[in-house]
Every structure is written in structure tokens, then in C-alpha cells.
Amino acid sequence: MKALYRYMQLEATGTPARANVDGVSRRGWIVDGETFVYYGGRKQQCLPLAEVTELRIVDPADEQQDRDKLHAVIRFKRAIQFPRFSMREGERWGFVLFRKTLTNLKAIEAGERFDFAGGQCLADDVELIYVGPGNIEYSRACGYVR
Questions:
Q1: What is the Cα Rg of the chain in Å?
Q2: Rounded distance between C-alpha atoms, residue 142 and residue 20, angstroms
Q3: Is there a contact between 21 and 43 (Cβ–Cβ < 8 Å)?
Q4: pLDDT in tens, the chain (146 residues)
Q5: How is the chain split into domains, by residue range?
Q6: Backbone angles phi and psi of 42, in degrees to 5
Q7: In the chain, fewer beta carbons within 10 Å around the N or the C end?
């Protein structure tokens, strides 16, 4: 399906909004006063305003950016094959703590299973090596910089 609107067009002329679509809160834009446009996965989705609930206009400056949220890094203690991809022993995975990943962090800290790469991972198979802001220390923990 071809996108109806270009991203730059949405940013320039659309009204930033947030709405519930099928029970999931989505960030998007109101276009032409009658359509809510958002990205579901990688595809652009366009819905009439009548099909969304809890529609509200947002100020992008008020929304917390990923850079302002906590980040975490885990290191795999052994090689593991997951449905989507595999992780080698010693490989690191960094992520922003937000909604589901925050639940995963709590499960790791409690020594429980957590969702990862389309499967389940045991907390015993990973080591939590960093929790904090997304700064240079996070980049070092991920192995991006030395």
C-alpha cells in the first residue's frame, strides 16, 4: 500500500494528536480535519476520526523523548536461539525503558521470564549491566564507544 501522505507533509501541515486505535494509544496527526494518520509498524495508516477514540491534540514539546527516558543494557550469558533471531554469548542488547520494556526490566530484576525477540528468555540467561540515562555511559555499556 502506498502512503497517502509524506512524513514531511504531515509534520508541516498535520495537527499532532494522540488517539486510541483498537485499544492501543497511537501518536499521529489529524489531517484535513477528518482523518487520523499514524504509522502502525512501518506502514502508514489512515482512519476517519469517527473510528478512533480518546482523540486529543498534543504539543510535541510536552511529549517525553526517548533521549529523556531511562535506558537499560543486558548481556547474554550464553548463546540463545529465539524465533526472530539469535543472540551469542556475551552479546549486548540496549533498549529504552518504556511500557513493555519496563515490564521486562522488572521481570529480569525479579529473576522471572520475559518476552524477547518473539519468544521467552530466562532472567538467569542475561546479566543487567546498565540502567540509567541515555548518555555516553549507556553507549559504553552497549559497546558503541570505548
A1: 19
A2: 34
A3: no
A4: 467 888 888 888 899 998 988 888 888 999 988 899 998 777 888 999 988 888 888 876 666 677 778 999 999 999 999 999 999 999 999 998 887 888 999 999 999 999 999 999 999 999 999 999 988 898 999 888 88
A5: 7-57, 66-142
A6: -105, 0
A7: C
